[in-house]
């Protein structure tokens, strides 16, 4: 059985940063993730997608962010159970938990932090007659390697951040980028909307709104898409090599939804007045998996939630110790394997 101080379910950016904050407090972490590698969606779905709202980084690729987080937590030597899904949870008489994966691996910890992002997910697909025929033959629902689209004619459909950001990014990669959205207004960041409009004015992006893709055409590979103007019902065919509908993901909590947690709209309700704890003491939920009044599904918000969660977890694990964190520094600390090394640590002031 694997024993740790904080068991983190989900090894995406929020879960990884929680390791760092816990490590400052000399708390050991172990992470479970159904994916075969750490990084969550940033590694599995869009490693080359640029992210613009990480403090200190005007722009950072999702995969590079994960690499940096892994480097940041290296001194704290977290454990990983990858390629396994957290399946069941049991609360023992002493208030600690045993979490068992679908492969039977057992983990024991006094604190469980669910950082599962959107949970298990599937792309939302457009309702098009012959869509499956062109999957992997010109149709894709996520972009892992932008170079695949080098010098290609690409049509992206969607109105959120992913559609906007990839349209901007591929404008310098693809031969031609067309962005189609069923409304004139976008749901993404205003800065991205302005950038797309600027690229349109520079003839680097074809912007078609309000419109939707209504048909796909081609033999063995996609050759054309039919776009319908939703204001006039006029249709036209556009030559393309690739069609990428970015309508978001359909999330599912999976087995975690059966753990007795309070759920609202497929997210876990937490107390955001203090520590993002769930209705079960000792179980926290941080990042996109949780919900509370005013919730924003941003990576930087997940980092903040992870920080406060770790403070609360420390108090739960060490009920007789009280302190106030003052700042962080770098100094010689003892690693979890007993070795001496340079690593970040928390400077705290004890309270009598």
Automatic annotation (TrEMBL):
Cofactor note: Binds 1 FAD per subunit.
Cofactor or coenzyme needed: FAD
InterPro entries referenced in this protein's UniProt entry, alphabetically: FAD/NAD-bd_sf (IPR036188), FAD/NAD-binding_dom (IPR023753), Fd--NADP_Rdtase_type_2 (IPR022890), Ferredoxin-NADP_redctase_2 (IPR050097)
TM region positions: none
Family matches, as Gene3D superfamilies: FAD/NAD(P)-binding domain
Catalytic activity: 2 reduced [2Fe-2S]-[ferredoxin] + NADP(+) + H(+) = 2 oxidized [2Fe-2S]-[ferredoxin] + NADPH
Pfam entry (one): Pyr_redox_2
Name of the featured protein: Ferredoxin--NADP reductase
């Amino acid at each position: 059985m694997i024993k740790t101080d904080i068991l983190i379910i989900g090894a995406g950016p929020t879960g990884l940063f929680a390791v760092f904050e816990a490590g400052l407090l000399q708390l050991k972490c172990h992470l479970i993730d159904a994916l075969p590698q750490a990084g969550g969606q940033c590694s599995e779905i869009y490693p080359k997608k640029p992210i613009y709202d990480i403090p200190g980084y005007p722009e950072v690729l999702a995969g590079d962010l994960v690499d940096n987080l892994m480097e940041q937590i290296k001194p704290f030597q977290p454990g990983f159970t990858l390629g396994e899904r957290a399946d069941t949870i049991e609360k023992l008489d002493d208030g600690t938990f045993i979490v068992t994966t679908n492969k039977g691996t057992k983990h024991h910890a006094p604190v469980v932090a669910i950082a599962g992002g959107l949970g298990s997910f599937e792309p939302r697909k457009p309702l098009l007659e012959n869509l499956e025929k062109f999957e992997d033959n010109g149709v894709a629902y996520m972009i892992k390697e932008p170079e695949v689209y080098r010098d290609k004619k690409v049509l992206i459909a969607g109105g959120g951040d992913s559609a906007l950001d990839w349209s901007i990014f591929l404008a310098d990669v693809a031969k031609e980028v067309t962005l189609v959205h069923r409304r004139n207004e976008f749901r993404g960041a205003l800065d991205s909307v302005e950038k797309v409009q600027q690229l349109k004015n520079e003839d680097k992006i074809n912007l078609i709104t309000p419109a939707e893709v209504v048909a796909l055409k081609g033999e063995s590979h996609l050759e054309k898409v039919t776009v319908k103007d939703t204001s006039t019902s006029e249709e036209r065919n556009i030559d393309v090599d690739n069609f990428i509908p970015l309508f978001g993901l359909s999330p599912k909590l999976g087995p975690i939804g059966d753990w007795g947690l309070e759920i609202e709209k497929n997210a876990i309700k937490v107390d955001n007045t203090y520590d993002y704890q769930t209705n079960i003491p000792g179980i926290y939920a941080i990042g996109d998996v949780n919900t509370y009044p005013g919730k924003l599904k941003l990576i930087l918000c997940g980092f903040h939630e992870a920080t406060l969660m770790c403070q609360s977890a420390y108090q739960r694990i060490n009920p007789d110790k009280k302190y106030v964190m003052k700042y962080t520094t770098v100094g010689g600390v003892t690693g979890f394997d007993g070795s001496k090394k340079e690593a970040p640590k928390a400077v705290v002031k004890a309270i009598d």
